[in-house]
Amino acid sequence: MPSRTVLPAGVSSTSFARALGELREVVGAAYVLADRDELAPYEKIMIPAAEDDYEPSGAILPASVEHVQGVLAVCSKYKVPLWPISTGRNFGYGSAAPATRGQLILDLKRMDRILEVDPVLCTALVEPGVTYQQLQDHLKEHNSALWLDFPGDGPLVGPVGNTLERGTGSTPYADHLAHACGMEVVLADGRVLRTGMGSLPGSASWQVFKYGYGPYLDGLFTQSNFGIVTKLGLWLMPAPAAYRTLLVRYWDDQGLAAAVETARPLRLSGTIPNPCRLSNATLMLTEVMRRAELFQGSGPVPNDAIFAAARQHGIAPWNLTFSLYGTLEQIGPSLDIVTRAFESSGGEIVSDYHDGSQSNELNLSSFGLLNWVGGGGLAWLAPVSPARGGDAIRQRDIARTVLAMHGMDYLAVPTVCGRDLHHLTALVFDYGDLQARQRAKDCLRDLAAAFTDNGYGLHRAGIGLMDQVARSYGAIRRDVNRALKRALDPNGILAPGKSGIHR
Amino acid sequence: MPSRTVLPAGVSSTSFARALGELREVVGAAYVLADRDELAPYEKIMIPAAEDDYEPSGAILPASVEHVQGVLAVCSKYKVPLWPISTGRNFGYGSAAPATRGQLILDLKRMDRILEVDPVLCTALVEPGVTYQQLQDHLKEHNSALWLDFPGDGPLVGPVGNTLERGTGSTPYADHLAHACGMEVVLADGRVLRTGMGSLPGSASWQVFKYGYGPYLDGLFTQSNFGIVTKLGLWLMPAPAAYRTLLVRYWDDQGLAAAVETARPLRLSGTIPNPCRLSNATLMLTEVMRRAELFQGSGPVPNDAIFAAARQHGIAPWNLTFSLYGTLEQIGPSLDIVTRAFESSGGEIVSDYHDGSQSNELNLSSFGLLNWVGGGGLAWLAPVSPARGGDAIRQRDIARTVLAMHGMDYLAVPTVCGRDLHHLTALVFDYGDLQARQRAKDCLRDLAAAFTDNGYGLHRAGIGLMDQVARSYGAIRRDVNRALKRALDPNGILAPGKSGIHR
Hints:
Two copies of one chain form a homodimer. Chain A has helices spanning 13-27, 36-39, 65-78, 132-141, 159-164, 255-268, 281-285, 291-294, 303-312, 328-344, 389-405, 434-453, 466-472, 475-488; strands at 32-33, 58-60, 82-85, 104-107, 114-118, 123-126, 146-147, 180-186, 192-194, 228-235, 237-238, 242-250, 276-280, 318-326, 348-353, 376-381, 384-386, 411-416, 420-430. The first copy, chain A, is an alpha+beta fold. Chain A has three domains: 13-110, Uridine Diphospho-n-acetylenolpyruvylglucosamine Reductase, domain 2, CATH 3.30.43; 114-238, Uridine Diphospho-n-acetylenolpyruvylglucosamine Reductase, domain 3 (2-Layer Sandwich); 242-453, Vanillyl-alcohol Oxidase, Chain A, domain 3. In chain A, the strands form four sheets. In chain A, strands 12, 13, 14, 15, 16, 17, 18 and 19 form an eight-stranded antiparallel sheet that branches. In chain A, helix 11 packs antiparallel against helix 12 (434-453). Chain A is globular. Chains A and B meet through strand 9, helix 6, helix 10, strand 17 and helix 13 of A and strand 9, helix 6, helix 10, strand 17 and helix 13 of B.
């Protein structure tokens, strides 16, 4: 073994070498990676943190459920913790890296079968390695009239990983967990659980009805470390006859409040069926220019400079987008309603806007912002509030204040999902600049604390922030998570530290 | 104590007397019921089963979370099992009675506060004793523009019990768990867990965002015995500007298939936003006549007689209803689409039908069928299939065959919920006629078995059927339920046998 081996906590180098030997028997030597060079792709965390703290001990790539069971048996024997990843591209949250140093990455990318697409029932059943691009290609090959809903990092990631992280997209199917139906989960002891209708012999309903009988368990296996999901059912959206994407510009920074107040009732009445995304000026500027072209000083770019540059590109302080779907006849009256509502709220409407993520065009929409400062550092923060104008403004001000304290810009996409608003905020920085990385790390910690201290809890966290966020939800919640962990994974083999859940 | 005391399994009469004494200290003597006469209201099971098998040992009525905690402490000490009920009107599934004899009913009806209704965010927070009638009255008093969605037994039952049983309604908010947001759960050891955003200090988002951080737990506390839900958040539907309920009659018994095939794509495109209910002729006849007026023979009423009588009342073999909601301008184009689709599928459309349950009118729609044979016996069975015409026909034929074997009529409301069809089937019988009750009991067992043997799993079961249905989902699923039970309720105090989950 190479000298710089990172060992799992409490596992001797002899034991670890034996474990690797046995694992090679299970999946084949080519699919057990323990050389530092081979592991490099798993260490590109992008987030502001010390890579050393998250170095894996190795990676193993099973090709089947039987492989996964074999791996679990070996890892249970040697107490080697396993960090399951689907495509390993949890960008802005730590990518493929484990929550604690020395875990063995269980890379499921070879399990990449599209097991079924039902064009009548509009469902699919996929393995963890399937990417959105792959599923999209499959649908196109079969001339399918089904749409995918995908997150901002689109083609590179996959529906299993994104759903388990409770990711969201941009169409009416944006809530990915709500549109998942039926899981196959390999438990720590190797038993294979099918949730919902999936464990009934001969059931044809696994992908059509999610609750099954008795407690509904799917939620348990999201943002957690209670099992390894090896199959996931998906609901796919029948392609609408037509759609129309609108942009509403608010030329006043306070327009954020009016936008939220106008969007919420239209979302709740169903007139707008997808999330209403409000991109701020800086975020949209990242698509057309770099920070250095605008500002060379220290601290964040002043608002005046941002707004002036933005105006030159037709970008307002706040830019709201959403879509209407249906036949042209169905879209017509809804278009009248939203036009009247947003115009009287002070918005300026551009009614033939294009945003592929709200239809069926895979794109990498969330990567443009990496160009702003360059250097590839990115962390996302997602505090939740009620979808009220006042809360959106308060979150904006918290974010600007804390970011400015650390000399960073405010790039945000507050999104009216429904009754809830997710103030999705990006920290971008030069990853290679260690000072910039440290500043971003401090900022991320302080920003998370500022949001939670004000009652705005985070609904997703990167590996560097998991314990802090889990603590914000209190001791009882953490104790319950731990009791469930012990019930389903008594040896604590699966992803220790995930979502702040330790053994 | 009266002589006919029913003791919890394994608890001596001395211990039980001591437990009752301590429980009187907790909630007050008036709220501990142990006399058989006082317990009679809890024993009206309506379903085909022997009441003796489900007799409670007593009932206790706490008025607060602190009371519930006190009760749990006493019951843990004496190992007295507790069967929590909200309003105790789980009609057709066993009403208030426990799944096994001798449990102490924890009747939460005194905890009946409407803690909050937010007219802006369209949410509510209620206690278990709140009924739909009470919530409806509250909304009307406050001139609220919010709609409730309620099950067929409407005003008498409440949102907490119905949601925890995964009940459904008739509007776009029909999936009650999907429209619940945030729980307060008293665990067996007395700790109080708030799910979702509820455990974050100062959170204003408990009722607006359900997933929170880490595993999403709400599903765990439905159809289970893992905790006592003492508060539940609800999403309420903003009243639409208008609505239009349609009836589509299929004058051919095979029209069931066409109806399902036509409804499914319209549901999935969102053109029809609520479940499409298909009432069969017999079910609708119960509203206008009694069985004895039509048929005096033995065995089920022949189809010809049913269809002939139905036709006289304008009732078809299959009668599909659904609604369109929105402004009149929005409803117009959707009405054109559904009219074209159902007409070309062979349906006859009545476009100004009235069905209060699809709007905001509380009613007792599901009780009319009790008049069919009289005598108050009722059991519901709800097998799930994909929403395909062929499956609906197959389920119909299974139901008719098994029911006929036991001399019973086929009363059914196959419902296209979305991708799934729930073939909701009622067994009605004269509860006081012990022979009829036994026949219904055998029929219920055989019908459940026939559905599950054909791959159509049940998604809800009455107390007499819980073990059978749980078994149909296999050993691994049951073992996982049991592991979770032991993690959250190691003494097995809460509702042993619920959903087939024993300690």
